[in-house]
User: What shape does this take?
Amino acid sequence: MVIARIGGRVTRIKPLVAGNWKMNGLGGSLSELAALRDHLAASPVPEADAMMCPPATLLTRAHEVLSGSGILLGAQDCSPHPSGAHTGDISAEMLADAGATAVIVGHSERRHDHGETDAEVHAKALAAYRAGLTAIICIGETEEQYREGHTLDVLRSQLEGSVPEGARAGTTIVAYEPVWAIGTGLTPTPPEVAQVHGLIRTVLGQMLGDSEAGAMRLLYGGSVKPSNAADLLFVPDVNGALVGGASLKAKDFYEIMSVYAGSGI
Ligand code: PGA
Assistant: This one.
């Protein structure tokens, strides 16, 4: 468990390592999921939970592969609408029907590629709750905002705009993913991550109250790999990782998870 301190209270939070396959993976990639399942069965990491978010086309088959394994299944985006004339969109209800228990909303690639605003991300998080899914709400500053020292202001505004008032720790996860760190091999320093995650928990406390904020998982994402996981994942107020590229290979993902093995946290 990782200990988060808020308002003088101490909360134990079980870390989560979530993989985001993005627009990668055909049927053959399910062998990586099966390998991860088998590896975790043979050498469990009970200190942390694992989740994989494959593309929507693989959800049903991934659900079969992961059945009974304890590895959670998530999706990468959802429509704010429950159904209707929205060609090509996928509702949170459909994701739940396919076996997902969580959905990523507001990933920076969607904010950038599809112009998603905080208001849309907020609506998608509400759609996730409506369908009984956990919302993994992503926030993060661009390289320019980072260089100009605007990180904390940007994150505060994204949190205020994207996280619904009714967000609860049991059904909401916040992922901090600096845009400039995604897929680049660059990462903030552990003290920078500590400062940002501390701010995120403080802002969530102001928005949702200390007890929800103190129990909420805050993930770090952006170029997490086996070689840097130990440095990034034991930072105060970091309760796991959102992993892109390194989640595509079972071996890399397992190695990231295994930093928690025997850690006694
Ligand atoms: P990365 O992606 O691990 O490949 O940097 C992280 C993410 O975008 O979730």
In short: The domain at 15-260 is CATH 3.20.20.70 (TIM Barrel). The mean pLDDT is 95. The chain has one domain: 15-260. The longest helix spans residues 190-208.
